[in-house]
Structures are given as structure tokens and as C-alpha cells.
Amino acid sequence: MEARTEVGLVKGHAYGITAVKKVYIGETNLMSLFGQKEKIYMVRMRNPWGQKEWNGPFSDGSEEWEKTEDVEREMDLWIAGPKGTETDRAGGCYNNKDTFLQNPQYRFDVEADDDTVMIFLMQKDRRALRSQGISHLVIGFHVMKVEANRRYRLHAIKDKAAGSEYAMSRNVFHRCDLKAGRYIIVPTTFEPSQEGEFLLRLFTSKANNAKEVAHDVPTQSMWPCISYPCLLTKVFVKGATDLEKQDRFGSADPYCVVKCEGERVKSPVCRETLNPEWNLTCLFYRKNSASTVKIQIWNSNVVMDTCLGKASVEAPLQSEPIIKEVELYGRLQEKDVKKPGVVTLEIITTDDLLSY
Q1: What is the rounded (10 degree) CA torsion for 235, 237, 238, 242?
Q2: What are the residue boundaries of the C2 domain, all occurrences included (predicted)?
Q3: Residues noted as catalytic
Q4: What CA–CA distance (Å, rounded) separates 12 from 3?
Q5: How many CB atoms lie within 10 A of CB 129?
Q6: Burial of 321 (0-12, 13-18, 19+ CB in 10 A)
Q7: Which one of 61, 165, 191, 234 is most buried, counting C-beta atoms within 10 A?
Q8: Could you tell me which residues come within 8 angstroms of residue 282 by beta carbon, excluding any fewer than 6 positions away?
Q9: What are phi and psi of 308, to 5 degrees?
Q10: Can you tell me the distance from the alpha carbon of 331 to that of 340, in angstroms, rounded to the nearest whole number?
Q11: Phi then psi for 75, rounded to 5 degrees?
Q12: Rounded to a whole number, what is the largest CA-CA distance in the chain?
């Protein structure tokens, strides 16, 4: 018989650490905002054997547990998807191209090139159901690089950036090096229309802004005076050539900023070059068909960045992408002064908000 401590831990069992958090203790009403709440550091562990529960401090129903804030009581997040409907989230693996993007989608950012990313996908334990003929599902995940400012679900499959093998296992793990940018993870079962609950964990060297991508398109405002987007413009800024020299070595550290209808997307900095390649892709949901796409080129400095030039590009409704080479002009008082350099970009506008 396994030895068990008086607080419920079983000697010899391997417990998984799922979180380390700073937990606030005490009341959570308005008056508590003006007082000093006690805080302690806690480690959240999970027993993979699923038996013999912790009964020490902060166990279920204990005095300490009742004093914690509701948000701190959340355990590992298990997400279940419905099946058998047109809007399900059980589309199967990449082989099922018609339904693959119906699966749950999660976005995350990589800040530096060749950053190491570790992805862990676990399904809910089904070993207790073996007597009913129920076994673990075949699971895996697929990673795609997307536009730098994507906020809504992906509607067109992109090239694979990384991914796991599919296995009939409790969990799958993949470690990879990714370039800077935004990515979408799609966890799936191998076959479509298979319902399952899962835990997805992501590890990067820096904050990755990971979150579920739940909506297909921008949501309609409750205020009738606020118009809804009617166009979707995709802009790909390949790079620039022959920019103005900025230092005594005849080089620069340029980056570009793309703007449209109040939204702003910034590229990474390319170091020591007058011919940068950003390969920056961004999406703009436009409410005004007459609005333009503005591009600014800046030189990164320690104290204050310097503008190397700007350009404005029209983006009318069109069925095919247009490649343009646009000249740069100065800002403010120099808006009519031509600046050194040419920016190469590709632009396309559609009235189908589900195109990409």
C-alpha cells in the first residue's frame, strides 16, 4: 500500500507544477482596495494519478481557500469543443483542409529571431474509461506564421512554421526555434468531429501575449453611429532600397511603420543597412473606402528616432494584388521634398472580411 502523508501527499508520486503565483488573501470588496491585503507565493501542483487529494492549508473547503480571490481559484483550463454543427471546433488535422480551421486557434508573439518556443498539449485523462471502450484521442498541433497585427481567426491555411507529431498519447510536446512575428497554434484531433478536453501550454523566453482567437471578424458595435468595416486590406512591405545614410559609416538602422484608419503596425529594426528587408504583412479592416495606407520609414536611434521618409498609397477594391515601388517624401514642412529611397510593397483589398 502506498505511503501517504497526513496532508494527503503520496510518497513516490510525481506531481506536475502547473503554476507559480502571487495570491492575495482577504476580502475583495470595495473597502479592501484601501487596505493592505496579505499576499503569499504559492505553487500549484497537479496529481497525474488523479487519486488522494491534498487536505492541508488551501485545500477545498479550508479556511484559507475561502479567503482567496475568485480568480485565484481557477485550476488548469480545460476547453471542450462541440461537435456535429457548422460552427464546431472539432475540424481534425491538417489533412482535412475543409474543416481544419474550424479548430480552436491561439495566437502568440515571438519578439526575437530564432527564439526557442516550447509547446505542450495535454488531453484529459481517459484511462478510467478504458472499461467502457474509451481510449485517448490521437492529438497534435499545427503552427503557422500570420500577419503582424492579426486579431481575428484565420480563414485561409498558411505555410506550416512548426508542429508536433500526432499520437494516441496523453500529451504531445514540440520544441522549435521561430523567427520574430505573430503565430497561430491550432490544436486538433487527428480525425474531425471528435470531442475532447485539452490543456495547451506555451513557453517562450519573453512575454508572448498568448490568447485565444475567438472571433471571425470585428464585432458589431452596439452604437448605431459607429460604422462597421466594409473592406479588408492586406499589405505586404517587402523592404526598401537606397535609403539615406545616417551615420559616419554610411549606414542606418531602419524600420517601417504602416498606418491605416488609426491602426499602426511597426516592423522589427534591420541593423546597419540602407537596403532593409522587413517582409512585414498586416491586415486593416477599413470603414472608409477612400482611406489610404501610410508608410513611414524611421532610423532607430538611442535618444530619438529619425524619419527617413514617408509615402501614401491608395488601396481601392481589387481582385488581384498589386506590387508597387513608391518613392519617399519628407514630413511636415518637408512634405513636398523627395527623400532618398524606394519602398517595395504588395497590396490587395477585398470586400470579403473572411478572405484571410
Answers
A1: 150
A2: 214-330
A3: 13, 47
A4: 8
A5: 11
A6: middle
A7: 234
A8: 147, 148, 149, 234, 235, 258, 265
A9: -95, -10
A10: 13
A11: -95, -170
A12: 85
Give the per-residue pLDDT at 48. 60
What residues have CB less than 8 Å from 229, skipping those under 6 apart?
217, 218, 285, 286, 287, 353
pTM of model > 0.85: no
Helix (H) and strand (E) counts in the chain: 1, 19
3-state secondary structure of 72: helix
Q: pLDDT per position in the chain (356 positions), as tens?
A: 567 777 677 766 666 666 666 666 665 444 444 445 566 667 777 666 555 566 777 666 677 666 655 434 443 333 333 334 434 788 899 999 999 999 999 999 998 888 899 999 999 887 777 777 778 899 999 999 999 999 999 999 999 999 999 999 999 999 999 999 999 999 999 999 888 889 999 999 888 999 999 999 988 777 766 788 999 999 999 999 999 998 888 899 999 999 999 999 999 999 999 999 999 999 999 999 999 999 999 999 988 999 999 999 999 999 899 999 999 999 888 888 999 999 999 999 999 999 99
Cell numbers found for residue 188 = 486538433
Distance CA 317, CA 233 (A): 9
Residue 187: Cβ within 10 Å count: 25
Lookup: cell for 21: 503565483
CA angle in degrees (0–180, nearest 5) for 259-148-227? 50
Q: Which residues pair with 240 in a beta bridge?
A: 343
Task: Reduce the DSSP state of residue 71 to 3 states and report it.
Answer: helix
| Joined grid coordinates for residue 295 | 508608410
Query: How many CB atoms sit inside 10 A of residue 178's CB?
Result: 19
Integer Cα distance of 5 and 197 in angstroms:
31
| Inter-CA distances, 117 with 6, 63, 231, Å | 39, 40, 35
- CB count within 10 Å of CB 136 equals 18
